């Protein structure tokens, strides 16, 4: 498997980091809500167990 030259887009990271803290938090909350809806029950249960162990 060939690895991409640049794994991360540095410009996108700079733009994200320049955002206010509230905007970054809102983005993370929206992403978490999306993934919560997209996960099947087995994955949700594994996620709950890991969070309970502070992982």
Using brief descriptors, characterize the structure shown:
mainly alpha; extended; single chain; 55 residues
Can you tell me about this structure?
There is one protein chain. The protein is an all-alpha fold and 55 residues long. The protein contains three helices and no strands. The longest helix is centred in the middle third of the chain and has 18 residues. It is extended and about 35 Å long. The chain starts with 9 loop residues before the first helix and ends with a helix. The mean pLDDT is 90.
Set out the fold topology.
Layout: H1 10-17, H2 21-38, H3 41-52
The stretches of 5 or more residues where confidence is low (pLDDT under 50) are none
Approximate helicity band: 55-70%
Strand content: under 5%
Q: Would you report the number of β strands?
A: 0
How many strands, which pairing sense, and closed or not: the largest β-sheet?
none
Secondary-structure element order, as H and E? HHH
Distance between the termini: 30 Å
Radius of gyration: 16 Å
Summed up:
This protein is mainly α and 55 residues long. 69% of the residues lie in helices and 0% in strands.
